[in-house]
């Protein structure tokens, strides 16, 4: 059951609630610059937004939330910014430990976490293990994560299996490929992808997973993102019609039949 909601918070009914929401948390630096502050201050307020949004998602009843916190390419930022982000991650893991454990949240990660410094990896692994049996919500942190890197890694695993004679090349289909991605083993399919800060790009996040996800772009800078912004995205999602390349059932049933040369084959057989 979702945690209790604050008394006067608007509750939208969980109609068409996405199972898995991903967020590209962008705009910390611009948020700070607009205020004449160093980028680092933007990241600190960004960490506060993470706390708020995790709590809101848990209260609303989202099954899985993936936060894109640090990309494979973010390693190329100035060393002092990378260090500050790692220190913030360490602080987040220590300070949110009880919030995560007390609220039945399971922590997982995707990405090349071997690259993270020990002072991030150790508390992260400890919390992943301590929360592994939780079922109320999955919080997935995408760390040192790159969609292309994940796809390349999946291809490498399949190549190894073929080279070892464990798999035939003709058996490499979308399903076999997807099975090699950590996201598909650990998470429900991505339903809704939110990006903040008014940028309209994926920036190497869930490239495979985004295939049929609904996209929502928010103008809010990440440090300003709060429960009402998440709710706006969920309300918008609830009104979408997802077709996955097909025709809605009702329309297919009503199809009068095209009288031309190539009548539709639908419904035959
Ligand atoms: C997002 O904010 C945080 C990370 C990518 C780690 P940015 O640091 O990208 O902020 P902008 O996009 O420069 O404003
Ligand atoms: C995407 O934001 C990465 C994360 C939110 C972790 P970036 O700020 O790194 O992406 P670009 O540079 O705007 O594409
Ligand atoms: Mg950015």
Question: What portion of the residues fall into strands of 2 or more residues?
Answer: 5-15%
CATH superfamily of the domain at 20-152 and 190-239: Decaprenyl diphosphate synthase-like
Instruction: Going across the biggest sheet, name each strand in turn.
Output: 3-4-2-1-5-6
Give the bound compounds: 3-methylbut-3-enyl trihydrogen diphosphate, magnesium ion
What can be said about the biggest beta sheet?
A: 6 strands, parallel
CATH top level of the domain at 20-152 and 190-239 is Alpha Beta
Structural class: alpha/beta
Shape annotation: globular
How much helix, percentage-wise, in residues?
Answer: 40-55%
Low-confidence stretches: 1-12
Mean pLDDT: 92
- CATH fold annotation of the domain at 20-152 and 190-239: Undecaprenyl pyrophosphate synthetase
Compute the number of strand runs.
6
Distance between the termini: 44 Å
Please trace the helix and strand order, writing H or E for each element. EHHEHHEHEHHHEEHH
Number of helices: 10
Rg computed from alpha carbons, rounded to a whole number of angstroms: 21 Å
Q: Per CATH, which architecture of the domain at 20-152 and 190-239?
A: 3-Layer(aba) Sandwich
């Amino acid at each position: 059951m979702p945690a209790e909601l604050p008394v006067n918070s608007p509750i939208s009914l969980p109609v068409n609630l996405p199972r898995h929401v991903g967020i590209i948390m962008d705009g910390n630096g611009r948020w700070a610059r607009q205020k004449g502050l160093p980028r680092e201050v933007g990241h600190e307020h960004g960490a506060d937004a993470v706390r708020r949004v995790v709590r809101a998602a848990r209260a609303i009843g989202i099954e899985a939330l993936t936060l894109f916190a640090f990309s494979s390419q973010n390693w190329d930022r100035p060393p002092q910014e990378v260090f500050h982000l790692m220190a913030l991650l360490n602080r987040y893991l220590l300070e949110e430990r009880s919030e995560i454990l007390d609220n039945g949240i399971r922590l997982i990660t995707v990405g090349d976490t071997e690259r993270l410094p020990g002072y991030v990896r150790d508390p992260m692994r400890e919390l992943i293990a301590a929360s592994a049996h939780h079922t109320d919500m999955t919080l997935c942190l995408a760390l040192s994560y790159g969609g292309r890197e994940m796809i390349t890694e999946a291809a490498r695993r399949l190549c190894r299996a073929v080279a070892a004679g464990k798999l035939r090349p003709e058996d490499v289909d979308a399903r076999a490929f997807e099975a090699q991605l950590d996201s598909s083993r650990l998470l429900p399919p991505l339903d809704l992808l939110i990006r903040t800060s008014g940028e309209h790009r994926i920036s190497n996040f869930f490239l495979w997973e985004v295939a049929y996800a609904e996209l929502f772009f928010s103008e809010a800078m990440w440090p300003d993102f709060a429960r009402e912004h998440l709710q706006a995205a969920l309300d918008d999602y609830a009104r979408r019609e997802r077709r996955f390349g097909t025709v809605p059932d009702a329309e297919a049933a009503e199809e009068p039949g095209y009288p031309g040369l190539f009548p539709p084959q639908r419904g035959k057989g």
